[in-house]
Amino acid sequence: MDEILVYRFDAKTGSLTSNNPPFAKVDPGSGPRHLVFSADANFAWVLNEMKSTVTSLIYERKRGVFSPNGTAFSVPQDFSGVTNAAEIAIHPNGRFLYTSNRGHNSIAIFDVDSRTGLIRPGRWVSTRGKTPRNFAIDPSAAFLLAANQDSNSLAIYRIDPKTGGLAPHGEVVDAPVPVSLAFVRAQ
Question: What confidence tier does 109 reach under pLDDT thresholds 50, 70, 90?
C-alpha cells in the first residue's frame, strides 16, 4: 500500500477510528515496515523495507498528520546486491538514527537534524553476521546489540555518544535464530 495508516485511539472504549486524513503516502514500492518518533513527537522516521530507505516525516500531533520531508538510503547507493531494511531505532539522545540492512548485513548510522527532522546517512558498520533482522539499544544507551538471524549470532557494539559511531565490543555470541531483542528489568 505504501501508506502509513493513522488511527485515533479512544482510551475510554479502547476503539480505533481512522484519522482524517487516514494515511500518509511514501514513495511507490517502498514498503514501510517500522516507524519511530523523536522524543518530542515533532518528527518520525519510517523504515521502508523494499527500497531500503528511510523517510523523514514532520508530525502534527494534534491532527495526527504526517508530512514527508525527505528520504535517504539505508545502504550505500552503489550497493548492487539484494537488500531489505529490517529495523529502525533512534538513540535516546535524539542525535542518531540507526537501521539494520539484511543482505548488506549492516547497521546504518544517520545524523539527525533536530530542527528539521532530516537525516544524513553515510556510515555503515558490518553486523559481523548474516541477515540482521533486529537490533536494540541497551537501557544505558551505551551499547547496540544486533541479531543476525541467518548466522545464529549476536554482535555487540559500543556506541560513541558524541558521534553515534559503533565499535565492535567483544566477540560475536552464538544465539540460535535470533529475530528479536528486548531488554527487561531484572527483578
Answer: very high
Q: What is the CATH number of the domain that holds 41?
A: 2.130.10.10
- The rounded distance, in Å, linking the Cα atoms of 135 and 108 is 12
Q: What pTM, to 2 d.p., does this model score?
A: 0.94
Residue 54 pLDDT exceeds 90: yes
| Per-residue pLDDT tens digits for 130-142 | 999 999 999 999 9
Instruction: Tell whether 10 is covered by a domain.
Output: yes
Q: Rounded CA gap, 186 and 102, in Å?
A: 31
Q: Is residue 82 packed enough to be buried (19+ CB in 10 Å), middle (13-18) or exposed (0-12)?
A: exposed
How far CA 108 is from CA of 14, 60, 154, 182, in Å, comes to 37, 27, 17, 20
Q: How many domains does the chain contain in total?
A: 1
Does residue 68 lie within any of the structural domains? yes
Average pLDDT, the chain: 96
In a domain, 183, yes or no: no
Which residues contact residue 132 at a Cβ distance below 8 angstroms, ignoring those fewer than 6 apart? 86, 87, 100, 101, 102, 105, 106, 107, 146, 147, 148, 149
Structural domain span for residue 36: 3-174
Taking alpha carbons only, the member of 72, 95, 75 closest to residue 86 is 75
pLDDT of 161: 95
93 in Cβ contact with 111 (< 8 Å)? no
